[in-house]
# Entry
Amino acid sequence: MSNIKEGLRYSESHEWVWVDGKVAVIGVSDFAQAEMGDITYVDLPDEGDSLAAGDDFGALESVKASSELYSPVSGTVVAVNEALADQPEKVNEDPYGSWIIKVEMSDPSELDALLSPQAYAEIAK
Amino acid sequence: MEDVLKKTCLYDAHVALGAKMSPFAGYMMPIQYSGIVEEHNAVRHAAGLFDVSHMGEVFVDGPDAEAFVNHIFTNDVRGMEPGKVLYGMMLYPHGGVVDDLLVYRLFAPDSYLLVVNAANIEKDDEWIRAQAAGYNVRINNASEAWGQLALQGPDSERIVLETLGLKEASALGFYEFVDTEWEGERLILSRTGYTGEDGFELYTSPAATCALWSRLLAAGVLPCGLGCRDTLRFEAGLPLYGDELSEEISPVMAGLSMFCKLDKPEFIGREALVEQKANGTARKLIGLEIHDRAIPRAGYPVLTPEGGEVGVVTTGYHSISLDKSICFALVDSAFAALGTPLCVQVRKHVFPGEVVKKRFYQTNYKK
# Structure
């Protein structure tokens, strides 16, 4: 049974969002990292990139597969967790402590379409 | 899938071990157990055990067996001693590959075992039969009656001696085998493999395959899936049919001419290979290293530094043993020389690199 952290919103493509004012902090769920296996590479976007909700902004790669990352919200990338470039395994070890990007939201109402932890638990299995 | 997936004799054992199962070559096969990296490293540094019962076993015997096998096979079996194994291909007349395979010269007179890829068993069986007109041979596709395990890694010989009690193992050189027994069942013990390490392949009945599997796991050998089988063979520069060899990719294009004996008087595809060797081929298979951790995967475009597309990746990984991002790629022959700068496009980014030797990893075979 994967760990689903309270206090976060989730996308159906297994990203989590922690809301800090106008900024959405985005990572991937424990379920997603477990499904991927050993993550060997995180393909990151650039600061300043603008994203629409549902856009792919990068990818996680394991030995065998790559898995695209999708932004749950629209806005501008204001920070990128460059530490993951050198330590991609942090996503496996601490998926909720390993944020990937921070997005300044252009339409915070998009958060309403995301899943609660309880609703996400239904698909993360 | 329209067809029902087949299961090897060890299917239940894989499920019980918690393996990630996935369709491969018509079989439901284990991709990984504890993890591809751990399994890969076990084979490089200790030993690992693979269920490869999906592989095909086709027996050829009869008075014309030597001439017939030599007719359909690129390597030269003339005068081959019993107990020896050769790698090579079966070709179409135009030089494309029907399959790559191992040929075992069995101890019975005029008798050979052809070990073929699982995905090609039916195609190969039909192909072999279609070439046999005029040859006095019997062809027996016995794939369903044989299981196969691969025990690979530097500890393999010790394990075969201590855990299985097969003393014959010590005397075997690379690409040699014995036809023996284990607990009353016929066992072909072969010093071969697909990992770049020393090791053995064990062919026996499905029941004995399960017994061997249990015995070896009980002795602490790590079960390994097809995931690391691919990373291991790739690092060792070994081709996979369908990726690096195919109806369109000849052994000359793939750099495997050393397994095609053009000095043989004849074999199917020989003229095409002679022509390819003389005139060159439009494309060649290369090794390519990119200077980034990004992973060049099959199907990604290969570009010149100026941005022109000159090829495609066939297999690629961030190498576990070498900690480099490397791939095989099929490229225009003008760009195939060692050291040629080439790039791979990975999603939206283009990463520079250069042509390197295809044998990325220094293999450790028994001398």
Q: What stands out?
A: Chain A touches chain B through 13 residues (CB under 8 Å). Chain A has a mean pLDDT of 94.
